[in-house]
Design a protein that fits this description.
The strands form 2 sheets. This protein has a 7-stranded parallel β-sheet, sandwiched between helices. A 4-stranded mixed β-sheet has the order 9-8-10-11, with helices on one face. With 396 residues, it is α/β, with parallel strands linked by helices. The structure holds nicotinamide-adenine-dinucleotide (NAD) and magnesium ion.
Amino acid sequence: MKNIVILGSTGSIGKSALDVIEKFPDRFRVVGLTAGRNLPLLMEQIQRYHPQFVAVPDEDIYKQLKNVIIPPNPTLAKGGGGGFEIPEILCGIEGICNVAAMPYADTVISAIVGSAGLLPTISAIRAKKTVALANKETLVMAGELVMSEVKEYGTALLPVDSEHSAVFQCMRGYGHDSVKKIILTASGGPFVGKSADELENVSPENALKHPNWSMGRKISIDSATLMNKGLEVIEAHHLFTLPPEKIDVLIHPQSIVHSMVEFNDGSCIAQLSKPDMKGPIAYALSYPERLQDVIDTVEWEKLPALTFKKPDNNTFPCLSIAYDALKTGGTMPAVLNASNEIAVAAFLDGIIGFNRIPVIIKKVLDSHKPQPAYSIEVVLEADRRAREKTRSVIGS
Ligand code: NAD
Ligand code: MG
């Protein structure tokens, strides 16, 4: 039995992770949950899975949760229930970090969105938990530091991001010195094939309509701008210790090939499946085993043609902006991430247009003097300043 903590349990990845856990009650048990502001859903999850610890970031939600918490109803506890009476509720970033490091937990699913996922993920690593990583922002902000902590604490960081799970699966048994390059696939998002002019007045609602994946709001906009792929290039660089020149991106609108690895001998191994995050989540939870019937198999004879093309870097500049930040290194990727978070939030709030997202980020990056990212404090300070700078660029 593996004891599981989910950071970000009310989100898209968090909910899919709970579906996987519930399907395999003999293997997995929920022992800790953390969530942001969706109190009704968090309450439902507490009653259903009976975690021992729960944490929320804000004091007001914490107070409300403390007031409404009721003893669990055993009839609601299907399979995955941890069976603890009433959970201990914790608050703030410290509370979330404590749940990430709680005793008895074996695996922590890191699925908070954005930079808020960094410290809890580090907390899980330092507590020697196996980390199933969905929160790519952790590696974008502080990849070198995080990977060196993974080494120091002797734990495992297993990718949940579908592309990285694909590369991880394709690389099994091969050292990275036998890899010529990896190719991350991208659906291209809802605006693939459009011109910059056509994107000038797109609404957040249109940008949120991803053709193949149902995801949280921030990553959906990142997919539409191709920043998601840029963040994933940086994530892959750290996870697989590959230089940027060995990480390519191709647009593959059918989202069946989740990524590929080209080897030195000219052969290529790809991982294919229906686009369903339960696949990579289950693989990270059960690795090195594979579980039974996690997702539906592909009906090959019914598939449309699988196509691949180069991304359009003129219409979607975020990908090349991210490559440049990776090549510069130091605090630059953390600034990229922070500036992107603020610009995406401004777009979602209707304050800026879609095409301004990369323009604003580029301005912030151009104004930043990168430093070596030698501590988490340095990274967090760069993050804080980049947020301030982005707000002032948006306001000007
Ligand atoms: P989401 O917005 O659906 O969920 C985010 C979760 O984090 C929620 O539970 C929310 O309550 C919590 N949260 C938000 N802000 C918080 C804060 N300040 N403190 C604590 N908790 C907070 O996001 P998602 O789509 O599930 O994505 C989660 C992470 O996984 C992101 O880093 C994303 O890039 C990555 N990811 C997602 C997918 C996907 O299919 N959704 C695929 C690959 C990677
Ligand atoms: Mg992905």
